[in-house]
Amino acid sequence: MVALSSVERWEAIVPRLEAARQSHLLCFWPTLGEPSRQLLLADLEEIALESLPNLVERCVLGDEASSLPPTSELEPVVPERIADAGPAAHEAGEQELSRGAVAAVTVAGGQATRLGFDGPKGIFPVGPVTGRGSFHLFAEQLHAAGKRYGRAVPWYVMTSASNHCATVAWFEAHGLLGLARDQVRFFVQGRMPCFGLDGRILLAERGRVAFAPDGHGGMFGALKRSGMLRDMSERGVRHLSCFQVDNPLVRCLDPRFIGMHALAGAELSGKSLAKAHDREGLGTFCRHRGRLRVVEYSELPESMATAREADGRRRYDAGSISVYVIERGFAERMADAGLPWHRARKRVAHVDCATGRAVEPSEPNAVKLERFLFDAAPQARVWLVVETDRDEEFAPVKNLTGADSVQTSRAAQVRRACRWLREAGVEVPVGEDGEPAAVVEFSARVAQEARGLRGSVPGGLRIAPGSCVYLGPDGVHAVER
Ligand code: UTP
């Protein structure tokens, strides 16, 4: 095939931009040098211009995806309790893991704007003693699973155009965290242009379109496009254990959860928590005409958020912690079907076409379109929601300070570590505020639940008040602070 020159490509794109009512994207063309023209053309050719006017009408100027069914049709979901899962579920999960039918999938393509971290969120220091990032903490869990189940569990990490290179480079620089090369796979999610409030696409620079990742729901399409679904099929993977990068307490491969999912024959299963308060920033699991539906917290009507049962309990209380087990075949179907777009108003820096000036907005000036992974839920013919324990499994890092921050997450990690140690018979000092009076972290290779810790802590272990202790696979380390 003969490559087209930039003039020929320009001639081809002009009428398409006109038809899409986006001709302003070429406003700086005459001022651009050849390399910049090439980059701009590549950006423009990436956009599905033919379907754009319809998309803009429906989802940028209108708000199609957020149209909820009437609230009277949304019933609460009563989850099964993971703590009540019998040994059969645990055994079934372990069996799936032992026969290599499970893969871990981490969605890590987000931009971490609230955290204000200019790098992949998975390397942000969250370990209370080691300062390890969540990628490292998850890798420890995968090592432990490999040892327990006698085979390496494949790990698929979704990145985005903005953090792919940095993520892969970091893994390489850290020897893939000791995992085997063919155990870790990276795949890049798609991206969407950012729109001005009038529906016109914004330019990030004179010769570059402003793009943003297409949301964690982009996972399905990206898994397919990148060949990862085929890779999974070749490896015999049936269940995808999916979780977000920003919850250091997550159980990446929970045998009970996987077992409950497998025994139910579910296509999609989600983990829930009882909400901390009416407006907690979690999706809400609901039942709609027999199917599962997750209502995003920003879209939850006040009447549902505050609704109470006759006995005073919160009616819609099953909050989603974005941990799912998904069947591979179901992921294939979702990749083909596509998910709806959600509109988010955000601040997006751009170059003004009229003045040529760079604009750093202080108020939301743009619309980003995102897909949400949980919008796949209504398509699942068989589904399950399983309630777990907040203190054991959920401490997200969304912000630098305040709620759901690095501090709250580290504190929750220390509390869990100390609780497990106490259950294993180790004395742990407590401060006047009832919080642990020491900082403790241990590797998932030492234990992945309280039970596992009994027998693996050295006899006579004492945690001194004010100390900082790391329990690794090679023993106990007191760390200077
Ligand atoms: P969040 O909704 O918390 O977004 O993502 P974020 O981008 O990390 O942070 P903010 O909103 O900019 O502050 C929840 C999870 O979904 C992933 C994130 O990496 C995180 O694990 N995600 C989000 C993606 O993988 N892709 C996206 O496009 C968005």
The assigned structural class equals alpha/beta
Ranges where pLDDT stays below 50 over 5 or more residues in a row are: none
The total of helices stands at 14
- Overall shape: globular
Q: Could you please describe the fold and organization of this structure?
A:
The chain is α/β, with parallel strands linked by helices and 481 residues long. The protein has 3 domains: 6-23 and 34-60, no CATH class; 71-393, Spore Coat Polysaccharide Biosynthesis Protein SpsA, Chain A, CATH 3.90.550.10; 406-478, no CATH class. It is built from 14 helices and 23 strands. It has helices at residues 6-19, 34-46, 52-61, 87-98, 134-149, 164-173, 219-225, 228-235, 255-264, 302-305, 328-337, 390-393, 406-423, 450-453; strands at residues 74-76, 80-81, 102-107, 155-159, 184-188, 191-193, 195-196, 203-205, 208-209, 211-213, 239-244, 268-274, 283-288, 291-295, 318-327, 342-346, 350-351, 358-359, 366-370, 383-387, 439-442, 468-472, 475-478. The strands form 6 sheets. Strands 1, 2, 3, 4, 5, 11, 12, 13, 14, 15 and 20 form an 11-stranded mixed sheet that branches. Helix 6 (164-173) links the parallel strand 4 (155-159) and strand 5 (184-188). The protein is globular, with a radius of gyration of 24 Å. 44% of the residues are buried. The mean pLDDT is 95. It binds uridine 5'-triphosphate.
